[in-house]
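Researcher: Quick one. two chains, 653 residues in total.
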Amino acid sequence: METLFSVLVGILFAGSIYLLLSRKLVRILLGIAILGNAVNLLIFTAGRLTRDVPPIIPLKSYLPVEATANPLPQALVLTAIVISFSFLAFFLVLGYRAYQELGTDDLLDMRVAEPKEHSEPPLGY
Amino acid sequence: MAATKTTVDITAAMVTEAVPLADWLLVAPVLLTMAGGAISIIFRKKSATQPWIAITTIALVILSNIGLLNHVLTNGVVTMVMGSWLPPFGIAFTADPLGALLALTASVATMCVAVFAMNSIAENERRYGFYPFLLMLLCGVTGSFLTGDIFNLYVWFEVLLISSFGMQILGNEKVQIDGAVKYAVLNLIATTLFLAATGLLYGLVGTLNMADIAGKLKAFDNSGPMLGLATLYFLAFAMKAAAFPVNFWLPASYHTPRLVVAAIFAGLLTKVGVYALLRVMLLLMPEGRDWLASLIGIVAIATMLTGSLGALAQTDIRRLMAYLVIAGIGAMMAGIAVGNEVAVSGAIFYSMHSVLIMTALYLLVAFMFQMSGTFSLREIGGLYIRTPLGAGIGLILLLAVAGLPPFSGFWAKLLLVAGALEAGRGWVAAGILVSGLFTTIAVGRLWIFAFWRGGNEHTVDGIQALPIARSSDAADISWSIWLPLIILTALIFVIGILPETMMSITENGAKTLIDPTAYIGSVFGGIR
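Model:
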């Protein structure tokens, strides 16, 4: 099971890196969305996929009686999902505003902050 | 088995005694900034009261950080666990001298920026949340410095990242959105790589508590997976710290936001990346650091040279400063590459110095813009005649960033070079000195062009040009601009004249990092 998931994580990473290398902003945003999910799945897999009972501790004891499923990766993934989702929301707005303001979604044409022709620094004193 | 008992014994899983009052100082900075941020969001329409809410909060944070640093220096590493759960299960907040010193420096820099912003951030931008973002940024930065849990470190990274995005686009100009796209995308990718590495580390050792990880990795037989993880962490944090060759986002974006925003970014954000590198490479994975040492050294030298040569090639003063940030990052990474006590102490000293100096330099740029109305090295000039005090402050700050005595940067570089020579890594020492020479030339040119010559580049020598349009008089400069500049300059000067106290703190910090017994002992043994 873990092997299968590891391969899946690898495929997701490959896909997201391919998209991130693109010049188009929308593809980069899609790459970020996939990257977030790839990492979530990676954490989930790294916590071992076990089919066990829920981690419920019987009354008046502080250790579970038998082996239970690992709840921690789920807590981590939940945190990471919330964060990556909110960042994606911000990025979608930022990408749209960038398209509106700069009139392009091609990163090579986004040269407002770093113009192609710039004056040389003073040479000599 | 506990299930048969009638009463549950909780001492095996929880801290039962009350937390000593002094230990609350560990979480106080984070709680204060969170509360202050929330309050200033509530008052977001009262733009006149907002600065005072922020300044009061940050003043309290500074006091609490001074108390914490004092507590750590007298009692050793301090730990507090959330929910009183025994480590490694509860999220631990652990302050060692490194974290406490950087937290204090960060809060001082933020205070200066908060005061400076009173006059330079427009009223409508305050309503868009400059001060809440500033407080939440400080919250994220302080949380990163004080946490003892690696997943928690990731969460603080995201807190400071989202606040910085909000500050980056404050003003909503074309150029800011362009800069924000590059800044945001690359920083998020770096943080996601950090999260991926943390997930894999959890799969490897089954714990997230830093002290626990350090202990477990030491006992690990097969070092292969750990070396891979160390490399992944190095890439992620080097990207955050803007080290060569993943530094391109920094000069592409740091000149776009408001200058006070750039000041706090340059002061704090890259230093968080360096701090994380120090923590992970030295405390968690010393074996990984040894393995990567040559690579880190090469990256450090390349970063220093990129920074100092890049600074020489800039016309825009703001971009020149961005390259100086990168040059400083290289020097700190050189300390990690060498890895002995003296060099690590130098790296910690340099991070502290860099927080103060980079904040001060961007504030100086804002001051110079107000006096001259331009950022271009060709157009600026004649500031010495118009403001001798400003020229003096400028000279001190620029010499300090180049690492010349008697200012704070000199002692940091001295420790770095001494450490590198002691470890037999003369090439790292040579890199630091050569890059220091280039930086001196770059900042010397800046001072001569901006302050020394009479006017812009067409002015004949010895002639004082007329004041440039759009500029203000030295008498018009408000106290809220002078005060932060003078305080930061005074700090840099005093640390440079009396470095012994600071050196003993950084040495203490380096010792705790290299020999983690005190750190691990505080988390697992010293629970009070």
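The first helix of chain A runs from residue 2 to 20.
Researcher: Thanks, that's what I needed.
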